[in-house]
From TrEMBL:
GO terms for biological process: microtubule-based movement. The lineage of its organism: Eukaryota, Sar, Stramenopiles, Ochrophyta, PX clade. ATP binds at G107, Q108, T109, G110, S111, G112, K113, T114. PROSITE patterns: KINESIN_MOTOR_1, KINESIN_MOTOR_2. Residues 1-13 have a biased composition (Low complexity). Belongs to the TRAFAC class myosin-kinesin ATPase superfamily. Kinesin family. SMART domains: KISc (SM00129). GO terms for molecular function: ATP binding; hydrolase activity; microtubule binding; microtubule motor activity. It comes from Tribonema minus. Residues 1-20 are annotated as: Disordered. GO terms for cellular component: microtubule. This is Kinesin-like protein. Keywords: ATP-binding, Hydrolase, Microtubule, Motor protein, Nucleotide-binding.
Length: 405
């Protein structure tokens, strides 16, 4: 990895309409845990330099002597509200514009992924991005746009565990283990989980209830690193469909001859990834080790996709770089969030403790590479766009077929 220059580039604007956009990469450093404080209160491997940059100490010296990394944002002691202002607000704005967006949290177990994505569901101040984004999506203030006549929100919530996709909203009973669902490809809408329960939700309270149920169904296991460490990737997808009326009412037709109703669908994809630590660090054995291996396989695939996308940005012949989305269920399902039709934010979560120096360094390098990825968000409305996407998908399928021969 190349350490970034301390001179910070202006953050990517989230306010433009459709167009190429880099993935926004932010890091969030949590406070020292009690265990870390007890071990050695003074030893930190990170130091914030500015709201966009930090130092990472690579040796036994303190962080001052380390490498500088620059990101779109470096959160240090910011509140949940402040993080949402910088990360969540644009997600909601994009949704109203008809643009897909996604946020994914990456980092070792215990670094703050779930705190950032979900936080406390029973405490307003402690609420993470999912509750805040959802509340804001349903709030009528955001709909101060006269063209919109109605909207609905449909939720899917699933986890990827050992490369198996498990519906967290499906009916469960203790006698029958939950069946794995297949990932399939829709010609225009992209990858989706076949047979996943889609629940229309009328407000945040509805969705909170679904999440609580889904979270109880999540596969958790104890490891040395975190008593309730989640070994799975959890993916919440909100499909936000607005019906908009365009044109002047000239008195004819259903909405008047000059008027037409158009549906805009935008997807909000919110991902709490499994811990990024290596299996040998967690001290797991037996079955748990197999799990860790698979989680790493998925995150390894994510790393390969990020590398390929980063390479395709610098490569002169963009089309020649093959991006191995299909190597894992995770990367296949996140394809649009990573290199496709979405505005995306990666939140890399970090412990500042020198005890976690190695994992923190690996998360920073991962995040550093993700900065180069470009996506191309498009308003999901114009039928021509759908046709173009369909043709593109066909071209990709034909290319893939050619490669196999
Ligand atoms: P992960 O999901 O990455 O395994 P968690 O989100 O569960 O980690 O965080 C581990 C612990 O650290 C939790 O007790 C959480 O409340 C706390 N924590 C994480 N991030 C922060 C933060 N930014 N501020 C305060 N506490 C935090
Ligand atoms: Mg977690």
């Amino acid at each position: 990895s190349t350490p970034a220059s301390p001179a910070s580039a202006p953050p990517v604007s989230a306010d433009e309409e459709s167009g190429a956009d880099k993935i926004r990469v932010v890091v969030r450093v949590r406070p020292l845990s009690q265990a870390e404080q007890q071990a050695d209160a003074s030893a930190l491997c990170l130091k914030r330099l500015s709201p966009q940059s930090l130092k990472y100490g690579t040796d036994e010296e303190n962080a001052d002597s380390g490498m500088t990394f620059t990101f779109d944002q470096v959160f240090w002691s910011e509140s949940q509200q402040q993080v949402c202002d910088k990360v969540g607000v644009s997600v909601v704005r994009n949704a109203w514009k008809g643009l897909n967006s996604s946020v994914f949290a990456y980092g070792q177990t215990g670094s703050g992924k779930t705190h950032t994505m979900t936080g406390q569901l029973d405490d307003l101040q402690g609420e993470g991005l999912i509750p805040r984004i959802s509340r804001s999506l349903f709030s009528t203030d955001a709909a101060a746009d006269e063209a919109i006549t109605s909207f609905k929100v449909v939720a899917t919530y699933y986890e990827i565990y050992n490369e198996r996709v498990i519906d967290l909203l499906g009916e469960t009973d203790a006698a029958s283990p939950r069946a794995a669902l297949r990932v399939r490809e829709h010609p225009t809408r992209g990858p989706f989980v076949e047979g996943a329960v889609m629940r229309e939700v009328g407000g945040w309270a509805d969705l909170a209830q679904l999440l609580r149920r889904g979270n109880r169904a999540r596969t958790v296991a104890s490891t040395k690193m975190n008593a309730a460490s989640s070994r799975s990737h959890a993916i919440l997808q909100l499909s936000f469909v607005q019906t908009r009326i365009y044109g002047a009412d000239d008195g004819g037709g259903e909405f008047g001859g000059g008027m037409r109703a158009v549906d805009r669908e935008s997807k909000i994809t919110l991902v709490d990834l499994a811990g990024s630590e290596r299996a040998d660090k967690t001290g797991v054995t037996g079955d748990r080790l197999v799990e860790s291996g698979n989680i790493n396989k998925s995150l390894l695939a994510l790393g390969s996709v990020i590398n390929a996308l980063a390479e395709s940005v610098t490569s002169t012949s963009t089309s020649s770089v093959f991006v191995p989305y299909r190597n894992s269920a995770l990367t296949w399902l996140l394809r649009e969030s990573l290199g496709g039709n979405a505005r995306s934010v990666m939140v890399a979560t970090l412990s500042p403790s020198a005890l976690q120096r190695e994992e923190t360094g690996s998360t920073l390098r991962y995040a550093e590479r993700a900065k180069r990825i470009k996506t191309h968000a498009t308003v999901n409305e114009d039928p021509n766009v759908a046709i173009i996407r369909q043709l593109r998908a066909e071209i990709e399928a034909l290319k893939a077929a050619l490669r196999e021969h």
